[in-house]
Amino acid sequence: MSNHKFLAAAAFAAALTMSSGASAQAVIDNGTIRLGVSRLGQLNESDSSGLYGVYDLRTKADGTRAGCLCEGWGVAVAGTSISGYANNSRGIGGLTSVDFTSTASTAKSDVRLTGGPLSVSHVYSPSAAADLYQVDVTITNTGTSATTGDILYRRVMDWDVEPTAFSEYSTIQGAVGAANVLYTSDNGFASADPLSSRGSPIDPSATGDFVDSGVYDHGALFDFSFDPLAAGESRKFSVFYGASLSETAALASLATVGAEVYSLGQSSDNKFGTTPGRSTFIFGFKGVGGTVVPGAVPEPGTWMMMLVGFGAIGFATRRRRTVKARVSLV
């Protein structure tokens, strides 16, 4: 395990002491995907059965729990020092828990910024696609005047895709051209605070949109910017977490829920999302000014493997026909 994993563990312990509500959590599932949800709305939590980030009940693999518990979010007002953020490894600050409720399959976190006029709600519930959980995010200006700057939101996570955690492929698509996307990279170890450094990408080319970066120990970082909020006004969008048994199925699920921007995390032995028994993990967004994912359109590498497969089938078919013809002549 790399040094930043050990540093992350120490940061996690410090974060727990910073927030009296950090020990409240829920482990929820829809029969296919299991999530561990913290009181402030970030992932990677445990119950009596174990620790969960994004867990595929079919393959018994998790995409985020190994090593650094680096999944988190943050919100801020651009041009000010007003921010709040929650990440079990990278730190928790500027947030006060208002309420946290859960059922076997849902969770709802309500928080407010301790230094500014914003409240944030994260509602976790099963989505229209069995492979995905939907997280409806609502940011509300609870003040008496408009915010002085744009509303910034960061969501960051370290892909640790089992069974080859710390060695995975990361993909981000749909970010380029999406109106509310400021920046993306594969640096899943950055702070969740939108006003803090984004850090350098693990793979120097892994910013904007990229496909199958790796194999590295890396993840996905998304920075968004939304228009200033008038007093009492809210901004809503959705986040998705889940896993599919193939890359094609993952893209189909993203299309089903209307996602516009997404990241895929795949183990080092599942680059193209076609390895039996392996999960393609999913992290997506809707309502961020992008174009809806077109559906089950595999990445270029997947197409190549399919074409090779089709070629092999065609060769085998022609060979059988040739053999049959020779037998007939005899």
Molecular structure report:
The structure is a single chain. This protein is an alpha+beta fold. The protein has three helices and 21 strands. The protein has helices at 3-18, 247-257, 300-329, and strands at residues 25-29, 33-38, 45-47, 50-52, 54-56, 61-62, 72-77, 83-87, 91-93, 95-102, 107-113, 118-126, 132-141, 151-158, 168-173, 181-185, 210-216, 219-226, 234-244, 261-267, 280-286. It has a nine-stranded antiparallel beta sheet with strand order 10-11-12-13-19-21-20-15-17. It has a six-stranded antiparallel beta sheet with strand order 9-8-7-14-18-16. A four-stranded antiparallel beta sheet has the order 1-2-5-6, with no helix packed on it. β11 and β12 (118-126) form a beta hairpin. The radius of gyration is 21 Å and the shape is globular. The model is unreliable at 1-23 and 301-330 (pLDDT under 50).
